[in-house]
């Protein structure tokens, strides 16, 4: 999925509404708390890019920062043994895809299951964007030219927009279901 496809609100199915008690509502917010940690890392990389653009930091500092983000570290841990046709699954996405989502899918709610299917597709798209950014940061480290920095900045902006959009969608659509069904995050 492209960043535009990930953020396409029209193509995103909507979950059913759930009436939650205060405890269920609090439980459903656990996912948002985890997302805030990832957003903090993205913001730090964005700030570093601003410092590089301003001449306060060196372009070679970007690749280690991008590859050091937990999202990128998780991606690297699982590798891409099957090349272009295989994409690694970050630990964060793997937990949701193989632990959290199945707990929601067994509830048999077809509308919610369509949302979960879409979220899995978005995960694959985000993983690709992370790897594209990491490759651009590696290229910048070997050749700190303005063109390479601009390419890196463009890829970062695309990833940042896509991640923020994905997290909002995921929190809005499955956060209430997590609370309603008592799924632990």
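Sequence proposed for the structure above (185 residues):
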């Amino acid at each position: 999925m492209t960043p535009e496809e990930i953020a396409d609100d029209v193509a995103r199915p909507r979950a059913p509404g759930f009436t939650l008690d205060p405890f269920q509502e609090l439980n459903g917010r656990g996912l948002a708390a985890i997302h805030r940690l990832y957003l903090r890392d993205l913001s730090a990389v964005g700030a570093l890019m601003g410092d590089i653009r301003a001449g306060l930091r060196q372009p070679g500092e970007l690749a280690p920062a991008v590859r050091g983000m937990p999202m990128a570290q998780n991606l690297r841990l699982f590798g891409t043994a099957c090349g272009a046709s295989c994409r690694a699954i970050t630990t964060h996405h793997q937990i949701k895809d193989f632990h959290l989502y199945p707990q929601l899918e067994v509830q048999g709610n077809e509308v919610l299951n369509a949302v979960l299917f879409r979220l899995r597709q978005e995960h694959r798209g985000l993983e690709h964007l992370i790897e594209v950014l990491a490759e651009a940061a590696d290229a910048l480290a070997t050749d700190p030219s303005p063109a390479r920095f601009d390419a890196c900045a463009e890829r970062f902006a695309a990833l940042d927009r896509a991640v923020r959009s994905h997290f909002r969608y995921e929190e809005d659509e499955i956060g209430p279901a997590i609370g309603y069904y008592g799924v632990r995050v």
